[in-house]
């Protein structure tokens, strides 16, 4: 007689379990604890019940980049195995803004803004995940209902010393930078979300390890089964050094235009290329191994490998036709370092210092100042191939200066 | 023309202000900040509006002792100057017990128990304060209403580093003893009470300094006028070393019988006597100075000075007649080391080891075992002038042993 607490799997089920575990652990930095992770998969295969797989997100307007897709790819794998994806929008903190009122940058988001941002997530994540099978949850639903008494219970599950072990807190505490007491609640809230959502497995970057562990601890304290946690590597940005992020402007956004995406891919440092391939594409491992060998042996040129990567990204997020176009454009405009032949030339007779917006309108490259402003904000304006993002920029006119708006509109200035 | 923000006091009012400030600062360790304290008194004298004077208390069943009266005497002074006393019962923490569920000793108090304990406070404090003019507040009224959002705002007013400066937290953190995150809320709650109560001046022992400062900081953060704080010395207990407290059994309770109170006063260490006089009685300073000089010069015997102190305590908490009686009793029973003449003598023929309860019943000093037990628990049983408090005590009978029950019942044993 078998122990009724132990899963008894048929051979066929055992094969399924192995297949899931093997695939889901690919590219993962850490699974904690591995044994519990496998047990959960076993139980799911045995009962046919999908597992709840959580990913937490902050509620500010998202601009999803390739760095985020490392985790999204993993979620897609879970989804393909039939598991249930829980996208948690941390709107509670967004709705209260900065509780101390000290920071002006952390503005309070309205319900409407939160929903709007969530919609943007849905659109962007939809390029990787099947959003029809993805649940979107808002933690204000449960956190907003907690009273002081509940909050004390939550805070009581954690010691100050343990909290100060968290890397960023530790660093700030040791260097005398202030940590506000309310900040201790951010990991506690994130952990409590797992309690409220009955999460089985939480996925996140390695920088989330502390917070994911909090979920385990709090689920245990609240009498729930502890989640397993699965951390994925952080991808360095285009600078090759720091974590890819919007604020460091070292990212490839998945909503960027095909040409932008392709062009940025070409600036990935050689030594990071394979990491991007492995973590941010779904190209089979065997194929990547061959590519890597070719690079090592010198039979594949890094530039060609990178073009293939750029092509792949555009294909994933825009489609094959766009990928073909972007590749052709790159070859024409950048790789051959030639600019279009038919570029209009304008002799500048105005002020030598002129606002960028006025310049664009003056040159008929944009119809109105409003359009010009939006184009700059949208990243569509370049001077001498350098993107201009400051709508208040004042340009000093130089002979031979080349202005570019969008993909195809060029003007050369002479003085 | 005078600045309209500045109080313009008549000479008569100025005299009143000086009188209050001088009297209220007597015996005080620290007033923070002194300038604000005076300004508040000035404003009160000018407008005729009383100040809100707060004292916080924990909600467990109180047994008020002479140590507490140091603060109560100060409150009485405020009351005599017409100010408004706010007794704050910290029932919120009592009602939630230990939020972590780890400590069994911190039981949850029901509304009824809280009210009952508050009533006990009223009765005992009523011996010092005019309770008709004293407001009793319960912090569950406002703290129980706070939501997570409000709690985060509260927590955001304090940094972790500042919190860890608090003496007890600091010690525990440094020695590796765990501090639960929720514990940070106890001082925050105490401070928030001052916000909710519009407290002008908070009074407390020197061990409350951190918490009283919290009130100032939080009032400021919530846009209220900051309270001044006034700390009073802690009185050492009868052991002469540690703070007077019930748990250390080194206290004189103000609810104790006149004889007990008088007797305990006689055990105050000589070197602490003047401190008790100054802090716990309302005897005018000039009189105390004379007494102190007499003691120093040897013209007053310490025993006589102590008897006067014991007499004063009994007078304060029981009345003059009781003070006279207690003094007479002490002189008869203790000081002259003589025992009553009419003491019955019983020849003991029972076991040589006998339970104290059985012994009392056997000797007809108590009618039933239940009565005997209650008398022991009430501290009314002595053997050879030593109080017996263990209801399970087993007595080894000795020749000449003297048993005493209550004030007047004696039995001498022979074997």
From TrEMBL, chains A, B:
MF annotations from Gene Ontology: tyrosine-tRNA ligase activity
Sequence motif: 'KMSKS' region, positions: 243-247
Broad enzyme group: ligase
Transmembrane annotation, as ranges: none
Reaction(s) catalysed by this chain's protein: tRNA(Tyr) + L-tyrosine + ATP = L-tyrosyl-tRNA(Tyr) + AMP + diphosphate + H(+)
Localization per record: Cytoplasm
'HIGH' region (motif): residue ranges: 59-68
Keywords: Aminoacyl-tRNA synthetase, ATP-binding, Cytoplasm, Ligase, Nucleotide-binding, Protein biosynthesis, RNA-binding
Residue ranges annotated for the RNA-binding S4 domain, each copy included: 354-414
Residues at which ATP binds: 246
EC identifiers of the protein: 6.1.1.1
Function summary: Catalyzes the attachment of tyrosine to tRNA(Tyr) in a two-step reaction: tyrosine is first activated by ATP to form Tyr-AMP and then transferred to the acceptor end of tRNA(Tyr).
HAMAP family: Tyr_tRNA_synth_type2 (MF_02007)
UniProt cross-references to PANTHER family, sorted A to Z: TYROSINE--TRNA LIGASE, TYROSYL-TRNA SYNTHETASE
Family the UniProt entry places it in: Belongs to the class-I aminoacyl-tRNA synthetase family. TyrS type 2 subfamily.
Record note on quaternary structure: Homodimer.
Protein name: Tyrosine--tRNA ligase
Organism: Shouchella xiaoxiensis
Taxon lineage: Bacteria, Bacillati, Bacillota, Bacilli, Bacillales
């Amino acid at each position: 007689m078998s122990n009724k607490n132990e899963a008894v799997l048929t051979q066929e089920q055992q094969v399924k379990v192995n297949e899931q575990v093997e695939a889901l652990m690919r590219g993962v930095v850490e699974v904690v604890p591995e044994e519990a992770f496998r047990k959960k998969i076993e139980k799911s295969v045995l009962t046919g019940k999908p597992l709840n797989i959580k990913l937490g997100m902050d509620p500010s307007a998202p601009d999803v980049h390739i760095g985020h897709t490392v985790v999204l790819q993993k979620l897609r794998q879970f989804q393909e195995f039939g598991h249930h994806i829980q996208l948690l929008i941390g709107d509670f903190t967004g709705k209260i803004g900065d509780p101390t009122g000290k920071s002006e940058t952390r503005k309070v988001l309205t319900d409407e803004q939160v929903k709007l941002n969530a919609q943007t997530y849905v659109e962007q994540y939809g390029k990787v995940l099947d959003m029809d099978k993805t649940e979107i949850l808002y933690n204000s639903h449960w956190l907003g209902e907690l009273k002081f008494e509940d909050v004390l219970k939550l805070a009581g599950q954690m010691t100050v010393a343990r909290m100060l072990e968290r890397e960023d807190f530790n660093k700030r505490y040791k260097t005398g930078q202030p940590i506000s007491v309310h900040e201790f609640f951010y990991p506690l809230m994130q952990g409590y979300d797992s309690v409220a959502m009955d999460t089985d497995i939480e996925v996140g970057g390695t920088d989330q390890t502390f917070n994911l562990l909090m979920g385990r601890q709090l689920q245990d304290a609240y009498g729930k089964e502890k989640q397993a946690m699965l951390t994925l590597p952080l991808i360095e940005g285009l600078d090759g050094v720091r974590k890819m992020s919007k604020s460091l402007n070292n990212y490839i956004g998945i909503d960027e235009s095909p040409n932008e995406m392709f062009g940025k891919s070409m600036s990935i440092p050689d030594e990071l290329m394979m990491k991007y391939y492995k973590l941010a594409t779904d190209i089979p491992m065997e194929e990547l191994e061959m590519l890597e060998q070719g690079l090592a042996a010198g039979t594949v040129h890094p530039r060609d490998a990178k073009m293939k990567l750029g092509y792949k990204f555009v294909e994933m997020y825009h489609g094959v036709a766009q990928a073909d176009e972007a590749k052709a454009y790159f070859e024409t405009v950048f790789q051959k370092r030639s600019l279009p032949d038919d570029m209009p030339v304008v002799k500048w007779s105005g002020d030598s210092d002129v606002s960028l917006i006025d310049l664009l309108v003056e040159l008929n490259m944009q119809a109105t100042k409003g359009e010009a402003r939006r184009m700059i904000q949208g990243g569509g304006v370049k001077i001498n191939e350098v993107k201009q993002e400051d709508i208040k920029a004042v340009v000093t006119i130089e002979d031979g200066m080349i202005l570019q708006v969008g993909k195809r509109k060029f003007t050369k200035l002479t003085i």
